[in-house]
């Protein structure tokens, strides 16, 4: 009888690849349906591949069961889900608040890392609006250690001991700071009063309404396969209308791109007001990347994406460029260069909108500009022709 029950409480997941190239991505299954069919709870799941080996999986805040799948071109991969004790896999996708650095919030996966700025920084008056990029060339988690070493332990001590010896202080700083590469990556990106890499913004006429720092956050998912966080930005008064931007950022294992879902409270009031103004103006949604003064020409305006080869904040020191991009797979988008940004503009925005932003570093997994263009196109093809998942 027990053997019969064991046979019944086993689900097969078939993952088909309809494309003519290898695909690797995180697939999603309906968690409630899986648990109901197995007669168990999400705390008692086990996922194995065709060889019978345990594979990483994760349950999410929005009711999904995630499994990492790699499928050859035109092929099929099979997994089984059963009740059991899961193998513990290391966390790959992680993020946290760093009050030691004025409320930065930073997140990472095995490809790269990002950060945004919080309430403590906004109170100082510093103008840092956009999304920052940190490079790494290791799949291991590095961000928390960088903050701890620089902002908690070492730099304050150096400043205290050598406050009157600038040369010693500067030399030690270069040996420790995450603004220099010590073999595992660094922070070489300049943001300031810009969108950085992929922050959302509104456009009133031809003027960008840049976001400011977040005022609230909530971590939604963290684990071996996905990290997601919800941000509520500080309110902005735009043409007399109070507008609050909300966003959910998601980053999966193995991906160079974060998913961004953004919506605005007060947008309809602003749009209606501007349409009645004299002269009438449109309110549009946009995102993009900042162009640096050392090189404002190395960008690409695609049909549904913008990309840029960023020279880094010290091109002659760091040498290896940083590749950044923002992708707009949904709806009609106009791409253009405007001032110190390349932008994708969504003229018919009227509610939540989803796009992607991301990066790669020439010292890690994308060596050249052409490889970055290939990576962008490969990712876009995955969105347009995803793996086909069947639950049996």
Oligomer: single chain
Radius of gyration: 23 Å
Distance between the termini: 22 Å
Shape: globular
Describe the structure.
With 392 residues, this protein is of the alpha+beta class. Among the domains are: 2-82, Golgi alpha-mannosidase II (Immunoglobulin-like); 195-361, no CATH class. The protein is 20% helix and 39% strand. It has eight helices and 25 strands. It has helices at 2-8, 31-38, 119-124, 143-161, 166-176, 267-275, 315-318, 369-384; strands at 10-16, 23-30, 45-48, 57-59, 64-71, 76-83, 94-98, 104-108, 113-116, 132-134, 197-204, 207-209, 214-221, 226-233, 236-238, 241-252, 257-265, 283-290, 299-301, 305-310, 322-327, 334-338, 341-346, 353-361, 388-391. The strands form five sheets. Strands 13, 14, 15, 16, 17, 19, 20, 21 and 24 form a nine-stranded antiparallel β-sheet that branches. Strands 12-11-18-23-22 form a five-stranded antiparallel β-sheet. The chain has a four-stranded antiparallel β-sheet with strand order 3-6-1-25. The chain is globular, with a radius of gyration of 23 Å.
């Amino acid at each position: 009888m027990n053997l019969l029950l064991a046979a019944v409480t086993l689900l097969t997941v078939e993952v088909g690849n309809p494309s003519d190239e290898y695909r690797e991505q995180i697939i999603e299954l309906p968690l409630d349906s899986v648990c109901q069919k197995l007669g168990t709870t999400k705390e008692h799941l086990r996922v194995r591949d065709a060889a019978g080996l345990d594979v990483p999986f994760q349950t999410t805040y929005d009711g999904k069961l995630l499994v990492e799948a790699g499928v050859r071109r035109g092929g099929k991969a099979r997994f089984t889900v059963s009740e059991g004790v899961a193998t513990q896999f290391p966390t790959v996708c992680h993020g946290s608040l760093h009050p030691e650095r004025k409320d930065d919030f930073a997140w990472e996966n095995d490809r790269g890392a990002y950060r945004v700025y919080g309430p403590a920084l906004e109170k100082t008056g510093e103008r840092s609006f956009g999304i920052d990029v940190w490079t790494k060339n290791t799949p291991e988690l590095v961000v928390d250690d960088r903050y701890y070493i620089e902002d908690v332990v070492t730099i304050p001590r150096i400043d205290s001991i050598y406050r009157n010896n600038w040369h010693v202080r500067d030399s030690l700083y270069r040996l420790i700071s995450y603004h220099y590469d010590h073999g595992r990556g660094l922070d070489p990106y300049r943001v300031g009063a810009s969108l950085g890499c992929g922050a959302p913004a509104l456009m009133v006429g031809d003027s960008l309404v840049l976001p400011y720092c977040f005022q609230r956050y909530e971590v939604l998912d963290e684990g071996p396969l996905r990290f997601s966080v919800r941000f509520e930005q500080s309110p902005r008064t735009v043409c007399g209308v109070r507008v609050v931007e909300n966003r959910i950022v998601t980053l999966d294992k193995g991906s160079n791109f974060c998913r961004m879902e953004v919506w605005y409270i007060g947008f309809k009031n602003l749009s209606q007001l501007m349409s009645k103004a004299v002269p009438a103006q449109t309110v549009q949604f946009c995102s993009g990347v900042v162009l640096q003064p050392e090189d404002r020409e190395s960008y690409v305006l695609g049909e549904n994406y913008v990309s840029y080869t960023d020279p880094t904040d010290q091109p002659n020191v760091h040498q290896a460029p940083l590749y950044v991009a923002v992708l707009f797979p949904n709806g009609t988008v106009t791409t253009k260069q405007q001032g110190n940004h390349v932008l994708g503009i969504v003229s018919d925005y009227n509610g939540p909108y989803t796009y992607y932003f991301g990066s790669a570093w020439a010292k890690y997994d994308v060596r050249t500009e052409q490889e970055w263009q290939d990576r962008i196109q490969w990712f876009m093809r995955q969105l347009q022709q995803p793996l086909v998942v069947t639950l049996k």
